[in-house]
Amino acid sequence: MSEVESIRQLLSRRAGEEMALNDSYLNPQMGRILRTLGFDRRWIGGDRTHLIDADGQRYLDLISGYGVFALGRNHPDVVAAVQDVMAAGTANLPQLGVTLLTGVLAEQLLARSPGSVGAMVPANTGTEAVEAAIKIARAATGRPRLLYADHAFHGLTLGSVSINGNEEFRAGFGPFLPGCEAVPFGDADALALELAREDVAALILEPIQGKGVNLPPDGYLATAQRLCREAGTLFVCDEVQTGLGRTGRFLALEHWDLAPDMICLSKALSGGLVPVGAVLVSRSAFDRVFDGMERAVRHGSTFGGNDLAAAAALATLAVLDRDGLVARAERMGRLLLELTEPLVERYDVVRDVRGRGLMWAIELGAPPGAAGRSLFRAVDHLQPGLFAQLITVPLFHEHQILCQVAGHRLNVIKALPSLLVEEDDVRHFADALATVVEEAERMPAAMARFGVRMARGTARASRMRRRLAAR
pTM higher than 0.90, yes or no? Predict the structure, then answer.
């Protein structure tokens, strides 16, 4: 019998094939994007707040896996917790039975949450948590309709994309779930009109919208919750990205003293190691759905509540508490705003700098003056949102900082640093950002540099396609 190759051996033997394998078997269009932008690094490791490429260069990671790596990469406490479970050989996922760790996780999450929720439904991902919330809302209320906000992002499975307020994620995937309708984010009057029909099962909102980092107007979320209560509609907070300390509170809803009927969690709860999700549900809604033995398994998930995920989540909660990371996120986020808000006054192309905790964004726009506006629009005409890439691409290549445009065709750049980010890294980012924005404001020169870089990336992509075709 031949010896089974270890993962370490496989990583060594196939090193350097990442992009070719992606192009052959995964998503070649993503490969084209990475090569065009020059982001096609061969990543070989992660160390807390940094990614490390094959040349040993360290990059400050301000994407954090879309918020997954709140504790950074490979946190030793989370790694140890997962290893402990594997060494213990637990009776994981008995299905017709229950195990300890998921129950402890539910206990701890509910203890940290508003008293309006009293039970947990395990899930594997954020979108699966949202799907569960949709089902629970309809079953608990007997109502068909679901309301969501424009520009909302709740996931990419069919139910979740049915309440996704971004057309680029919806196009071509319809028809969607019936009864799903958008309302303007922040417009309480429009919401009240929809709720007055008394057929809405749930309003599902992100306290802070991830696409664009859009903060709610003062008083909006509390008013939305009150209107839902009056209409018999469940109020659901999607905290998949904003939860677990991201905004300087354990849950973002704490900024507005909300008490929702359901809270969706995922991403950072994983500790960056094992996918996990959860829906925290009011006891009244839960009991209306799971209201008898014959209905005990009317919703579930094969891998939901597995011991590895629960161990990673419990370790994450312990590290958040022990190291004071929620307060740290508030402190570092306040510093980041203090350092970057002056860019609004300093540079004509900066429209806004906003955020809560370590969920931050800068919005760019056309400068005053006919010539500046004309040039900005010419850049945007090439590709809406392209001006933002005049910021993200130099940040990556010249300052070793990885960040992202905050949404499709948006001139908004977003940062989600690890909650472990150091003050020196925050200051480095702010200084680099100021330098790059100043260069980008000189648009002809910036576009020339950008064009040369894109041409090099396109040439690399063409060479790779020719090599693949010759195989």
Answer: yes
